[in-house]
Amino acid sequence: MFEVKWDGYRLAVHKDEAGVRIITRGGHDWTDRFPAIADAAMQMPRTTMILDGEAVVLDDRGRSDFGGLQRALGGRGGKRRAGEALFYAFDVLYLNGHDLTRMPLHGRRALLEQLVEVEEGKIRLSEDIGSDGPLLVSAACELGLEGIIGKNVEMPCRAGRNGDWVKIKCVQSEGFIIVGYEPSRVALGGIGRLLLAARKSDQLVYVGGVGTGFTARSATALRRQLDAITMPKPATDVGKRNGAFVKPVLVAKIEFRAWTDDGKLRHASFKGLREEADAASVYRLSD
């Protein structure tokens, strides 16, 4: 089965005789940050349950908007309450005194579909959208969604990355100028993160960094190239970041999911350097 990949915060909604708790993947209690979701859980008829799902804020086209969710919570590290957030439930792990984690997903889904409505309320069902993966991911990308998730319905609930779920993301790929890097003693090639810039008119604008996608070989080779073109100051304003700055002559191919509200790359991954024969096009920001 396939579902929409929601772009929000993964949460577990716990309900028992003492009330409702909303717990993050890291174990933090965020009940007070999602009061509408907590109230909706209290109204559900089951005495005890644990729902697994994603808290999201939808944009005006019905797509999950991570930036909108962050704004609703007061930004990164904020303390506001996200009253407009919805919870899309995609699993039920515990119900009325019964641990369901050993039950195959198709059985848990059948129970979940009896608990949660598809389009009403603050707690909604994350629907099974079909079985044709290539067609679905193409449609998801055309609609501007984050992607889809394929799930093996015969498997029980197992923690960790085990192949039971396959995430297929919609990504963008562009060229960005490397303006520096943050050194690291533990990262591959000693590169903790590349600092990237795009063009805007005749200037360079810092658009964030990338710290994933390297191999030991590519990172080592890139570090040698960067160390050969160092300069004392960055070619553009990178804020208060400390790093080694380089001449803006190398263009990196970067895959990324989206842009943050403050104009930075989100979910970026390094895919290599653009070759000179590749016409090394650099992403241009609108004026």
TrEMBL record:
GO terms for molecular function: ATP binding; DNA ligase (ATP) activity. Its EC number is 6.5.1.1. Keywords: Ligase. The keyword Chloroplast does not apply. It comes from Mycoplana azooxidifex. It is an enzyme of class 6 (ligase). Gene3D superfamilies: 3.30.1490.70, DNA ligase/mRNA capping enzyme, Nucleic acid-binding proteins. This is DNA ligase (ATP).
